[in-house]
UniProtKB/TrEMBL annotation, chain A:
The chain crosses the membrane at residues 6-25, 45-69, 75-96, 116-133, 153-171, 183-204, 224-249, 261-281, 314-342, 354-371, 377-402, 409-432, 444-462. Belongs to the sodium:solute symporter (SSF) (TC 2.A.21) family. It is a multi-pass membrane protein. GO terms for molecular function: acetate transmembrane transporter activity; symporter activity. This is Cation acetate symporter.
UniProtKB/TrEMBL annotation, chain B:
It comes from Paenarthrobacter nitroguajacolicus. Keywords: Membrane, Transmembrane, Transmembrane helix. Residues 1-26 are annotated as: Disordered. This is DUF485 domain-containing protein. The chain crosses the membrane at residues 47-69, 81-102.
Amino acid sequence: MNPAVGLFAFIAVSIATAVIGFYGLRISRTTGDFYVASRTVPPWWNASAIGGEYLSAASFLGVAGLILLSGTDALWFPIGYTAGYLMLLLFVAAPLRRSGAYTIPDFTEARLDSKLVRRVTSLVVVAVGWLYIVPQLHGAALTIRITTGLPSWVGSTAVVLVVCLTVVAGGMRSITFVQAFQYWLKLTALAVPVVFVLLVLAGNGTQPQAALPVNPTSQAAAGAYQHISLLVALLFGTLGLPHVLVRFYTNPDGQSARRTTLIVLGLLSVFYLFPTVSGALGRMFAPELAQSGQADALVLLLPGKLVGGTAGDLLSALVVAGAFAAFLSTTSGLVVSLSGVISQDLFGGSVRGFRLAAVLAAVVPLGFAFMTDTLALAGSVGLVFAFTASTICPVLLLGIWWRGLTDAGAIAGMLTGALLCGGAMVVGTLMGPANAPAWLAQPAAWSVPAAFAVTVAVSMVTKNRVPASVNRVMSRLHVPERPVVTER
Amino acid sequence: MTRVRVTAPRQSATAAPGRLPYPREVPEDSDAGRVFIRSLIRSQLRLALVVACGFLVILTVLALILVYGPGVAETRVLGIPLVWLVLGVGIYPVIGLSAWLYTRAAARNEARYRDLVEDK
């Protein structure tokens, strides 16, 4: 591929992001603006923004790469990513919006009336966020290396720089505009090349090199345990993702939070058609990418390979732009929510503290990204979902729906989940993906139930610690807001 | 008789302009209010669980049919293997439909709660 194409696409996306960011700067003034865009973003904008933020490197590059490698087994990834939003809609969306809290630690502190719970939740949230930013930076490194031939670190460093600049300058208001723009950019960047490739293939009657059901490498089919564990992780991990939750606070009320989620589900369903088609095309027309270990770059290389010429270059530029939109939007979403958490706990919640925290939130995972190597993107993001499902999900679900939850139970549950799932991740990584048994590689199926069980058991034992405010908080979470009342 | 609206001090957030932050017509310290709120929460939880379980059952049955159904692995529609069509396209409308039904039913539960409170 022409190196200038990749570079041009990256610079164009960065400038567009920065311009929208600075445009937003003029509107955001107060601390409230900075955090949650004052809760006045209309549902369509908000849904596009949620979609833009959620569709990360794993969705944009990883899903197609994994489908290339393992076929129908990988189709469960986008299903899980989407159905996770269904769970979020069912159990979390409206109550969380009504809680009036900005971040997950705000929520747990208000619900359980305990500073210590807040501290522990903050730690977990920051860990989740950092773990999740690392694969985005790996994706950026891979994209820059493959499309321009520059060293890997350029890609990840550039993403961190652009994110820091936009977040520090504009806060969440501009981030909402940027994210909404990036959903549509990502959709276009995947859909247009796929349609073009299909037209070209149909036009010149190219014969497939391999059959769709045959795996290009000798990758073994996943067993029932892996499927179940993956679905548990994705279904219950989504509702604890910090950058997804903070997005719901920009809805004016609980009902509109539900409406927004419904639109998000539609947007995600449409989006995932295209990585699926790309992956299927890759299996039939470019199986050698899997054999040479470049599966994650399938989406980037497909137009150049199957269309070629100037048209191929233009389509490649579009895909690279979309890929960077994915890294930038997910990373900035995570950085915004992490800096919300870090600044409130460390810097007293001022705008200056928020900016400092933003830099801190982005630079630490950059260090991690330098030290670690690119795994399969969809797989490493899947592990982050497992970690979230084992730590934040039980506290959130039980906190919203069960009066009996206590601070001791919440802390015990989060620590158990973090130790079990984190331990399995560390041991599994040390053993290497080839040697780790399925139950270590995919811990969610046992670590999530264990975390739930510990949370419930410890809460039952410490019944006397149920906060006095429980009735007030529960009704705040569940009672519908009234429409605007003028005369009372 | 003058009506007093009781609002809890908000922890950290500011209200969106023009909206009442929280409904406080039924303070939760009255017995009737507590009963209403409990039944609202219970009906919302039941609804969410029913939809979630329904969706998971559909998903499981589909997966079992795709793996064990006789002849399913070889079935093709318009040249595309059925497994790919179902997992790649067919499941998404099921997700969307579940979400839409839930949203409507949840709003109806809330409307019923409001009616109860206003009748009082």
